[in-house]
Write a structure and sequence with these properties.
302 residues, seven-stranded mixed beta sheet, four-stranded antiparallel beta sheet, 7 helices, 17 strands, EC 1.13.11.20, RmlC-like_jellyroll, CDO_1, oxidoreductase
């Protein structure tokens, strides 16, 4: 696009956060017309791979916004979120102009707002998890430990659109190697440290979307062994992110003297995941909750 005097051009490509922001900017930027400034916004719609150039000082943006809103309403949120795992890589730090989250209550409320739209801004979800700073007084009531294994404690069910959990890790406790059922997994440290080991997802490359979402029977899926691709320490207020296109992982508390607590967000939520042994034998594991909303669950309610 050419730049002339009195013309300010802004180009946004595939960033989901910027795409949402520009829709808001269209309305607020109308005051610029009084200064004889013309603002052109290039909109990229990943939903439809549609590209448009709009002059927000004219009447067309109203029509454009209406059409965009219509397209968003028609999106299947769960399908969209699963498709987003094919390209999303995670933010390394909070967005420069993103909203602040001061408390756990604020975080939950902000997450609910993000998931009200079928078109979930996954970068904003990532930003919110990064922005929240651990405060034990806020999450202590959800932190339930077990002597023998790490625990999964439900904080908020997200109206069925996401799950927010607190996981409590005793000294030396760790998970098995597992996937995330084609969902997004954000993991924020609240107390102590964790160590994440990542592995290649067996036979993942070259599989189409339908195959990724299908459930395979238990048994041997390959003659190879799990291939470790990285190991990362996670410190307090750090956020780790993984989805099945990035691999499998195992999480453990490396300390034999201190406990650890982490905050996890899964979207879409899932009831089962796949667990892998070193030999690549895959089994299906049911996802359960040790407690819900700070109250210990009964065996038949997990």
């Amino acid at each position: 696009m050419s730049r002339n005097r009195g013309v300010r051009s802004v180009e946004f490509l595939q960033s989901e956060v910027e795409r949402v922001r520009l829709l808001e900017a269209i309305q607020s930027s109308r005051t610029a017309s009084n200064q004889n400034i013309h603002i052109y916004i290039y909109i990229y719609l990943p939903i439809t791979s549609d590209h448009r150039l709009y002059n927000v000082n004219q009447s067309k943006p109203k029509m454009a916004l209406s059409k965009i809103d219509s397209e968003i309403e028609q999106v299947d949120q769960e399908k969209y979120l699963r498709q987003a795992t094919s390209y999303y890589q995670a933010l390394e730090k909070p967005l420069k102009y993103g909203p602040a989250v001061d408390t756990l209550t604020d975080l939950v409320a902000a997450l609910h707002r993000e998931f009200e739209s079928n078109y979930v801004n996954i970068e904003m979800v990532n930003h919110l998890m990064l922005t929240y700073k651990s405060n034990p007084r806020e999450w202590r009531k959800y932190a339930k430990f077990d002597r023998y294994s790490y625990t999964r404690n439900l904080v908020d069910a997200g109206n069925g659109k996401f799950n927010l959990l607190i996981l409590c890790w005793g000294e030396g406790h760790g998970s098995s190697v597992h996937d995330h059922a084609d969902s997004h997994c954000f993991m924020k440290m609240l107390k102590g440290d964790l160590r994440e080991k990542r592995y290649e997802y067996p036979n993942r490359s070259g599989r189409d979307t339908a195959a990724r979402h299908s459930h395979h029977p238990d048994g041997e899926i390959d003659s190879r062994e799990l291939v470790e691709i990285g190991e990362t320490p996670i410190a307090v207020n750090d956020v780790a992110y993984i989805n099945d296109n990035l691999g499998l992982h195992r999480v453990e508390n490396p300390s034999h003297s201190d406990t650890s607590v982490s905050l996890h967000l899964y979207c879409p939520p899932f009831d089962t995941c796949s667990v892998f042994q070193d030999s690549l034998k895959k089994t299906t594991a049911k996802v359960t909750f040790w407690s819900k909303y700070g109250v210990r669950t009964k065996q038949n309610e997990q």
